[in-house]
Every structure is written in structure tokens, then in C-alpha cells.
Amino acid sequence: VSTDYGVNRWKRSTQQFTPYYLGTQNNPPKQEKSFLLDITSGKHIICYVKEQGLFCFDDRKQEFVSLKNDLPDDIRNFVIDSKDRIFFLTGHGQLLHYQLTVRNSCPELSFKEEIRHCAPVSNIYLSQDCLIINDDRTLTVSQDNRILDSINIPENKTVSQAICHGEYLLISFIEGGCIRYNLENGTSTELLQLPEKASIFTIIKSDRHRICRIGGNCERHIRVWNQKKQLAASKLLRCKPNIKNTFRKYPCSTD
User: Fold this and answer.
1) Burial of 149 (0-12, 13-18, 19+ CB in 10 A)
2) Which of 6, 10, 34, 189 is a plausible cystine mate for 22, CB 3.0–4.6 Å?
3) Once rounded to an integer, what is the mean pLDDT over residues 90-117?
4) Can you point out the beta strands (E) in 32-187?
5) What is the per-residue pLDDT across 169-191, written as a single tens digit (0 to 9) for each?
6) CB 222 within 8 A of CB 232
């Protein structure tokens, strides 16, 4: 789980959170989204830390180690697909495509191309191997450089996350609320069961249980599931981890 001030690991069997990375000398940068996380096809956890660079979690050492790269200093976000293609978004709205390879258990990063978009990109998401590009006006869904759909963003709304869920695209907003867009017929509906003004920062989907989990601040964790192809919100889960910051992202492994 990445927060504004560090990375924390949750173990399902013990239900415990453990602070795992707090920055150099436990003095992390003090900005939002200082710590960005994602996971490769080989289950390597990749972490980008503002002001400090790119890191990979070493299972043998049980710590994050620096990953050599030639990235610019202003990375805003990154995502990794099933082919270990990594897409980095810079603070200037540039979208960069890199390839991650692992040789002798050592990950290596190589630049491939800059992906051109019609407008400056404000954020990117990846779901079901679809790259979703947010330019604050539209969400563009593409796969292997082929555009599948383009969705207009509602006025006065800021997209926090977009994930594919079967034939649907779930789009959540910082201001609160979540809509379900049908990629097959272009219709959309609002998930009315969610708290109207609860800010949503992240959504993940569990393929094993067909469950979506929606995260906000450290006191909100809403479970949503697919029941007869209808999404419904379950009870509001109050989790009490020893994490005092906003949940930003939480890539999951088996444990």
C-alpha cells in the first residue's frame, strides 16, 4: 500500500500492516503521491519515489534496491502491463514507453518510444492490458497502440481511477461517485449505492473473487462485487491499520 509518506505491506494471514519503505534515513519527501507502486508479470514490485528515483523490491534482501534508469526527474505516474512494458507519465504531460527485462534476477530498463497524444496527459491507468489515458477532457482507451474508445469526462469532475471490469469501464472521481461505462454500447450509469460525497482515490479488481475494492482515506474501504452482472456496494468496511495517511494504490500478490 503506497501512501504519501511511505510504503506499507499488508499480510493477509496476520491482518497486519508493516511499514516497509520510508525513504532515505526515514525522511521521505513531503508531497502527494511521493511513492508510486506497480507490479511486473514476474511479481517484482517496482516503486518510484519523488526526489530519489526508481526502486525494485528484492525478496532475498527484503528491501527496496535502486534500479538503474535514464528517466526524467518529474515522473508523475507509471503503469506496467502483462508484457512488462512500462508507461511513464512526466510532469509535463509526456508519455514514455520503456521495456523492463529481467536478467539473472536483475531487472533492467530500456527506452522504446514517446507516445504522442492529442493533448497534454494528466494521468494514466492500466487495466486488462488496456492503457487508459486521461487528458482531463476525455479518457482514451487503447491496446497495443490501437484506440478502442474515447469517453468524455463529466464537467466539474476529476478522475481518480479507471479500471476495466468485463465489458465495463469503472471510473471514479476525487469529488465522490463512480460511474460504469459500457464499452460495447457506449452507455453509462452511476453507482448510486456508494456514499455520495466520499472521495475515491483508487479501485482494484480481484479476478479470483470478481470483487472490486474501492479505497479512500485510511478509514474507508468499500467492497463492490459483480452479482448477476450488476455492481452493488457492500457494507462500508472500517479498517484499522497502523497507516495514518491516504491510501493511493495497493498492488496485490498472492499473500
Assistant:
1) middle
2) 6
3) 91
4) 35-39, 45-49, 53-58, 63-66, 75-80, 85-90, 95-103, 106-115, 123-127, 130-134, 138-143, 146-152, 159-165, 168-173, 178-182
5) 999 888 888 889 999 999 999 87
6) no
Please enumerate in sequence order all residues whose Cβ is within 8 A of that of 62, keeping only pairs 6 or more positions apart, or say none.
Answer: none
Cα–Cα distance list, 108 to 9, 59, 67 (Å): 24, 17, 7
Residue 46 CB burial class (10 angstroms; 0-12, 13-18, ≥19): buried
Q: What is the pLDDT of residue 207?
A: 55
- For residue 16, the tally of other CB atoms under 10 A from its CB is 12
Per-residue pLDDT, 107: 86
Query: CA–CA separation, 120 vs 157, rounded Å?
Result: 18
* pTM for this entry: 0.76
Average pLDDT over residues 188-212: 67
